[in-house]
Amino acid sequence: MNILEMHDIHKSFNDLEVLKGIDLNVAKGEIVAVIGPSGGGKSTLLRCATTLERVDSGKIVIGGDVLCDTNGGKIRYCDKKMLGEIRTKFGLVFQNFNLFPHFSVRRNITEALIHVHRKSKAEADEICNSLLKKMHLIHKANEYPCNLSGGQQQRVSIARALATNPEIIFFDEPTSALDPELTKGVLNVIKDLAAEKMTMVIVTHEMSFARDVADRIVFMDGGVIVEEGPAYELVTNPKEERTKKFLAGY
Fold it and tell me: What is the distance between the alpha carbons of residues 221 and 12, in angstroms, rounded to a whole number?
């Protein structure tokens, strides 16, 4: 069963076409790493999948529900009610954490649970405590983001993404704002999620991590998928010259 289906996705910003007919399916329990040079369309693809950007044409299905489809040359998005349901099916972890600075760690995690998902405070706190223990951050529950390291903030943002029990989590370069020591801690958390067979799409520049953790790697450049395949095979034996050139730098 596919949790994510993206078919013939096109997206332009003014006269610049950033996505040029992308096809991407992600099966339940699959970990897909998306790699490629800056400006290749990786983050735009993620933003389209998570409703932060509207596509110009194509079809997106998340968890069996149609987010958008093209009919008669016109893109049509689902209604507001369905959009709300689809948004409960995924979590998103940003490269710059995007925590609310005026909320404690606990409130950053429980706010949506209480006010969007209608959980009781007790239930939201129980979910929060469980996730903070998993992230080794239970002792930071009442701290504010400004008092945390970058790695700790990113682990809080991962906990927030997991809190709603999504079917798929998207990571947009989750370690790009961290130094090497903090990067290791965040990657270990994602490795643990991979061991639990959490469905994930990870945009990353960490090639060894992508090789060792992902089931499949997608290499994007110039708004198209140049090559994709089993992770270890693609990194160690790429077929396309453009992929070989890119990976030679790592």
Answer: 15
